[in-house]
Amino acid sequence: MSAKKVNKIAVLTSGGDAPGMNAAIRAVVRTGVYHGLEVFGVTRGYNGMIDDDIFEMDSKSVANIIQRGGTILKTARSKDFFTPEGRQKAYENLKKRGINGIVVIGGDGSFKGAQKFSNEFDIPCIGLPGTIDKDIAGSDFTIGFDTAVNTAVEAIDKIRDTADAHDRLFVVEVMGRDAGYIALHSGIATGAENILIPESKTDMEALVSALTEKEKRKKLVNLIVVAEGDEFGGGNQVGDFLKQRLPNADIRVCILGHIQRGGAPSCLDRLIASRMGYHAVECLLNGTHNVMVGIEDNKMKYTPLDNAVKAKQKISEEWLKIVKILAS
Ligand code: ATP
User: Fold this and answer.
1) How far apart are CA 29 and CA 59, in angstroms?
2) What's the confidence (pLDDT) of residue 326?
3) Could you tell me if 22 and 68 are in contact, meaning their C-beta atoms sit under 8 angstroms apart?
4) Cα separation of 138 and 133, whole Å?
5) Diameter over CA atoms, the chain
6) Å from CA of 108 to ligand 1 middle
7) Could you tell me the residue ranges of all domains in the chain?
8) What is 12-79 written as a DSSP string?
9) What pLDDT is stored for residue 3 in this prediction?
């Protein structure tokens, strides 16, 4: 933990963009200004630290952004930040401005980088979980997840209309990388008959039997939501398999893709981003350093960056049981 008083802070977004990142930037900047700190923005993630793309921000710099998706600071993955030379350069650019506290809005990779940087140069870092995948332990919410799920739900509802009109079986692939949360939540919320996620074993033979049995019962609308990281494969693999095994069914595949990333953040994402951004600055000031700011049971939770990177959230057995029962 650094003993130096934090009076100049920088904020950056790193990794994949997520709706609500702008609301978090706004909260960090305005809370910093409220406390009389000098606040800097860093563009394009850690690349901006290395390339000296750092600029002063004030309350006005974050006006009219709370409702916008993406990130006004831009985001990137930085190869150079993996190297000691890259991090040294980044440090020198911060040092010459006297920046002595950082807020990183990103995913677990960004936190790994922050932890390493902080260990090497004794600059406290605070992480805010900004990812649509919800694959970080230590918080019930991640910035962007709620918006992404709502986008998926809206799209799947529309697909259901077509599935119903044509008696088709639709396989819809949603994002989430190796996490199944977007699939689980959007699948339950749209009444999908089957939800395939990496956290539970995918039994394709059981799926074929269930669909065959449903065909007999003339249950005609079938929606299968599959997480892109499911161990059997994504939407195309699942669709190809089912087309082979159920040659009489009219099967279509829809990959939702990047529409799930953008768009105006939901009310929930704006709220949690604002709350987390505020607490990130409070942490820098009160000495709670090198933690990820999360929310659990409606209380702030501070997880050491080391732990935030190691653990993944688990999907509860209860949810998996609910999916099975409601899909019948
Ligand atoms: P998302 O969940 O959207 O992918 P992320 O933060 O996990 O976000 P990553 O690409 O894993 O995205 O990491 C973002 C950046 O953090 C990397 O491009 C790199 O600059 C830095 N980073 C990640 N891991 C390390 C590490 N072990 N050492 C140094 N820097 C790292």
Assistant:
1) 7
2) 85
3) yes
4) 14
5) 72
6) 7
7) 8-143+265-308, 145-261
8) EE-SS--TTHHHHHHHHHHHHHHTT-EEEEESTTHHHHHTT-EEEE-GGGGTT-TT-SS-TT-----S
9) 55
SS3 per residue for 106-156: ECHHHHHHHHHHHHHHCCCEEEEEECCCCCCCCCCCCECHHHHHHHHHHHH
Residue with tokens 């934090």, as numbered in its chain: 6
Identical fold for domains 8-143+265-308 and 145-261, yes or no, is: yes
- Hey, what CATH topology would domain 8-143+265-308 get? Rossmann fold (3.40.50)
Which residue from 13, 42, 81 has its CB within 8 A of the most atoms of ligand 1, so it is best to mutate? 81
pLDDT tens per residue across all 328 residues of the chain: 445 799 999 999 999 999 999 999 999 999 999 999 999 999 999 999 999 999 999 999 999 999 999 999 999 999 999 999 999 999 999 999 999 999 999 999 999 999 999 999 989 999 999 999 998 989 999 999 999 999 999 999 999 999 988 888 999 999 999 899 999 999 999 999 899 999 888 899 999 998 888 776 666 668 999 999 999 999 999 999 999 999 988 999 999 999 999 999 999 999 999 999 999 999 999 999 999 999 999 999 999 998 887 666 778 889 888 888 887 6
- Strand boundaries in 197-261, DSSP class E: 222-227, 251-255
**Does residue 106 have its Cβ closer than 6 Å to ligand 1?**
yes
Q: Which of 21, 42, 112 to mutate to test the pocket of ligand 1 (most atoms within 8 A of CB)?
A: 112
CA dist 23 and 16 (Å) reads: 16
Is pTM beyond 0.90? Reply is yes
| DSSP label at residue 314 | P
Give the integer Cα–Cα distance in Å for 131 and 129.
6
Expressed in angstroms and rounded, the spacing between residue 282 Cα and the centre of ligand 1 is 24
CATH superfamily of 145-261: Phosphofructokinase domain (3.40.50.460)
**For ligand 1, atom 17, which residue shows the shortest CA distance?**
77
Phi, psi of 128 (to 5 degrees): -115, 130
